[in-house]
Amino acid sequence: MTKLKVGIIGSGNIGTDLMYKIERSPVLEMSVMVGIDPDSDGLKRAKDRGYEIISTGIKGLAERLDLVDIVYDATSAYAHAINSEILIAAGKKVIDLTPAAIGPFTVPPVNLNEHIEKSNVNMVTCGGQATIPMIHAINRVVQVEYAEIVATIASKSAGPGTRANIDEFTSTTSRAIEVVGGAKKGKAIIILNPAEPPIIMRDTVHALVEEEGHEKEILNSIQEMVSEVQKYVPGYTLKGDPIFEGKKVSIFLEVNGAADYLPAYAGNLDIMTAAAVQVGNEMARHLLREKEAIK
Amino acid sequence: MSKSFEILDVSLRDGSHSVRHAFTEEQVRAVAKGLNAAGVRYFEVSHGDGLGGSSLQYGLSATDELKLIETAVSECTTSEVSVLLIPGIGTKENLQAAARLGAKMVRVATHVTEADVAAQHIQLGRELGLKTAGFLMMSHMAPVEKIVEQAKLFESYGAEIVYVTDSAGAMLPQDVTARIQALRQELQCEIGFHAHNNLSMAMANTIAAVESGATYIDGSIRALGAGAGNTQTEVMVAVLEKLGYQADIDLYKILDVANQVIAPMMQQPQEITGGSLLLGHAGVYSSFLLHAQKAAQQFGVDERDILMELGRMKTVGGQEDLIYEVAQHLIKA
User: Fold this and answer.
1) DSSP label at A223?
2) Among the four given CATH numbers 3.40.640.10, 2.40.10.220, 1.10.8.60, 2.60.120.330, the one describing domain B274-332
3) Residue in A170, A239, A240 closest to B91 by CB
4) What ipTM, to 2 d.p.?
5) Tell me: the pLDDT tens digits for A195-222?
6) How far apart are CA A223 and CA A137, in angstroms?
7) Can you tell me which residues form the catalytic site (chain A) (predicted)?
8) How far, rounded to the nearest angstrom, does the alpha carbon of residue A92 sit from its chain's CA centroid?
9) Do A68 and A17 share a structural domain?
10) Which of A145, B84, B104, B279 has the most Cβ atoms closer than 10 angstroms to its Cβ?
């Protein structure tokens, strides 16, 4: 089968991890890594693996648009606004891993196919990818009035972009809890823990539902959803049993990563990049089918 | 000796943990009025976990904290209201809202090793014209050099005060002296200290801090704060006077607030129980105490086992969700 060419902008933790995952895709082909620091580890690794590299950012990529069909942006919300405009004008598909949220939020097990025809889709945040499937799992049984998530990640797995813009994590995640998760109101909290050895990403979902009961259906729905997520993040597991207290449901999760770039503790990196590859795959299949139809 | 420090009272913020975030407008009004009359320069009003802390994770506020801040501000003629902001929980938007209502000071808190998440919030505090501080929580968990490095980050973002915060009440006077002295030497800005009394060290630690050069010190009336509470404000006023400092706070008036206003609103005495002692011993964030007691009851396990395990796991502030998971795990063990 033909593959579509992928560019990644942002050679930090997310971009580099993404590169390894794209290598395993049946429909995507890693083509170019774009960064702004020629000495960055991500650019070096991309070069070593035989990919094109551009160290002059979007300016450099704008001159080599023949290299890409689909572009992943793992820079910052601010940079993404500029990048997206240039790429979309050139007819490229953009998958946004920053909190910019120009395009619609996509969380694969909830709405993978809903937005694949759009030119720009947004991957929410790591905490959103880990918890929104669970909120949706409750919400498809009984209306969630309020959902709150707490993402605890190892300090080492939070790069400088995340740290400088921590409010964007909370605001973007809160909005996606409502828009994709279906909760009437959402809230997000993020905690960095510097313990050594680094802690594995943990996520907790607290939800208030419209009415008590439905425990068994909710538990079944949660289990099914865990299996769905495990298809692309095998290390996604429940820790302990969900706790029911009146209208409150609490779910405890742990996310072990695939250790493509950072070690397995950085499940936050993995769940984001693995979800983004799912979206890229579906977009590519859709585009390839369209091309086929035209022929 | 003349006055060389400011006392900041945290009863209406740290005390929020002790009353399970149920402060009413009337209570806040009465405390604010009393603190203002007694001459306390700054006092803090926020959810226990700072602005935006109202949550299922930490406890929902019975009354919106913004309403409480507004009420407190309206009682101030000389005192000023401070707010706490923990990036990751609260946001810049929360701070803007508090400043609009008349808050005059913000303390931006991070775990002792994570100061760089606070750059934007500290900058915003300065832009809004607030007295702006950085607050290094769980300071017992990092060596002196690390604290200096992180404090310098806060200072570089524009913090006017950097606090050594003993969130777990785990420090001994020599730990405080080493940290405050190092900061005094390496920083230009003012140094503050915030204690918890879990090992009965709060007053001793506060003296060590003042004698090492701290110029901002925290207290709570009747020690109304998380765990066994903080340095008791009214006691601190008396002790510092005996040491020859001038606190500029009216002792009788602050005692009146303690006896007439704070005492009736306390849900339990702020004594050092087995649980709070273990917070200090194991180095666990003080607000975990009441959650651990609840989880112990709910799952039929010993609160002390939960707290020891949380210490072993090197948990940081905000990880209350782990308490329930640990309790569940203990039954199965």
Assistant:
1) H
2) 1.10.8.60
3) A170
4) 0.96
5) 999 999 999 999 999 999 899 999 999 9
6) 9
7) 126
8) 19
9) yes
10) B279
